[in-house]
Amino acid sequence: MVCFSLAACLFFTIAIQDLVKGHVVVNRPRLNKRQFDLGSLAGLGGASGLGSSLGGGGFGGYGSEEAGGFGTGQGKPLESNGGCPSYYMIGARGTTEGPGGSMAYNTVSEKVMATIPGGARRELDQYSTSADYTMTVTEGSRTEVQMISAEISKCPKTVFVLLGYSKGAMVRTQTLNDKNIPQDKIAAVVLFGNPYFKAGSPQNKCGATTGMGVAAMAGVKMPEQLIDRVYNCCVPHDPICQIDGTIMNHLTYAGQHANDASNFVMIQLKRKLLHKTGHK
Fold this sequence. Notes:
hydrolase; disulfide bond; AB_hydrolase_fold; Cutinase/axe; disordered N terminus; carboxylic ester hydrolase activity; seven-stranded mixed β-sheet
């Protein structure tokens, strides 16, 4: 077989485990690091105007974090929650990205927290961004379910904004299919370069109207109850969410697309917070 693009190779080698569809576990051939590793593209982020690379570390913009990995927004919370944040932003980054966040969604979290006070943010910890696309996605989702459940038990009024890029978008989708996640606690979801992308879904944004992602055949979908709170952003010819194209298109989410996603999140979050406080 001759691969004319990275996407073509990915399509024939993608491996998914623990498909969230009727709790059926499907095993496929495991990827190795040579088959799916974007680390060789480190530095392309800066070349494409994103200001950061795909290599580990070097993802600024999150600023200082408090003990436990939390950072708080500026200003007073919208309401007193006994020390709990009004909302909580959790990021799941893409392959080889470091613990400081993602080049795709850091701008989203920064703008939202600068505009709407009372929030906290954190990167999904105990989540491997290695090139393994089997166990690490499942483990990341399991970790996130535990994290959200623990936070809800401590802070039952807190709502959540979930951000995911590339592999992290897969983690997001599996998490939201877990029966232990109360969907009324989800204020907004942003997915960039989602391997589960399918054309024609109502939550789709950013111009891709055809094609499907490299993992779309796994059949993992966003729960229908959350569709109006999801911003599923796939640009045309991004080979991760469209199968064909060039990998440079997978690195273009940090600009206008992130700004548009920020506005979407702020609208959804304000609506959720106002509803929570009883305001109309």
